[in-house]
Amino acid sequence: MERHAIGIDLGGTSVKYALVAASGRILYAGEHGSRAAEGAEAVLDAILGGVEACRAFAAREGLTPDGVGIGTPGVVSDDGRTVLGGAENIAGWENLPLADRIEWAAGMRCAACNDANAMAWGETLYGAARGATDVVFVTVGTGIGCGVLIGGRLFRGYRNRGMEMGHITVKCDGERCACGGVGCLEHYASTAALVARYRALSGASQADGREVVRRYGAGDPAAVQALEEHWMYLSHGIASMINLFAPQRIVVGGGISESGEFYFEHLREGVRRQVMAVCGGETEIVPAQLGNRAGSLGAAGLILGEGAQR
């Protein structure tokens, strides 16, 4: 009988959850708010809400999930048990025994990894990175997360503390980032940064990434300027990653990556102007294929035996 697991993709604004078969087939999926502004306990409740929704569906289908995999912002201990810190978008999300808390509350085995690594692992198993050995994954959302596949294995740095490439510097005299550094890629090129810049330029009190993209298509000058600045900073960051790793592919995920081919045309052109040709001549820049379910699929893979490289 095919095995199943629950995959949780925790973001700064939402919790995405799915019941996943070992083949990669999603049997059930949903999404609700992460309650990040309310603190760690509220986020844990939101995660457990997703777990219970998946488990209820599994029970109706006569299935028993093997456990829960979680992709979370921040740095996760190398045993996949504890969030050490680095999740600036979630209040109090540090030194948290995440796997223990979920196991205690849900009565199921749990393993965790960084959210960008979960997205990377999902795309490696089932999506845009299939067949490749050297890939950089960039997820653009409330923050910017990155994962790196080298020689077919996820590279995580010593004790799982590396690959925070959302915090490489793209503006040396820039503003201070939530991480404490100055001029970070995440501070200038995340979707949250795009929306904040659009609001500052337009005076709009409300907007999200989809609305900025829509208004860009309508020729709104503030949206045009905000997106052009977004592409400039993101292309500089991605060019730096290509110069460092010379990957076969750059896989870009996150909601804004689903804006359409025009988004990637602008991004590729910006990277082309900045990257060293000898490093990036064979690098493709492609959208993630799994959409906003990549993280859930990769997280489930932690439990289903595919995520030993977590």
CATH class of the largest domain: Alpha Beta
Strand content: 15-25%
Number of strands: 12
Main structural class = alpha/beta
Q: Fraction of residues in helices?
A: 25-40%
- Corresponding CATH superfamily of the largest domain: ATPase, nucleotide binding domain
Strands in their spatial order, largest beta sheet: 3-2-1-4-7
Number of domains: 2
In DSSP terms, counting alpha (H) and pi (I) runs of 4 or more, how many helices? Answer: 10
Distance between the first and last residues' Cα: 25 Å
Mean model confidence by pLDDT: 91
Element-by-element helix/strand order: EEEHEEEHEHEEEHHHHEHHEH
CATH topology of the largest domain: Nucleotidyltransferase, domain 5
Secondary-structure arrangement, i.e. CATH architecture of the largest domain: 2-Layer Sandwich
Largest sheet, described in full? Answer: 5 strands, mixed
- Write down the overall geometry: globular
Secondary-structure blueprint of this entry?
Blueprint: E1 4-10, E2 14-21, E3 26-33, H1 40-60, E4 68-72, E5 75-76, E6 83-85, H2 98-106, E7 110-114, H3 115-126, E8 135-140, E9 144-150, E10 153-155, H4 185-189, H5 191-202, H6 209-217, H7 221-245, E11 249-253, H8 261-274, H9 277-280, E12 284-287, H10 294-303
Parallel strand pairs: 1-4, 4-7, 8-11, 11-12
Antiparallel strand pairs: 1-2, 2-3, 5-6, 8-9, 9-10
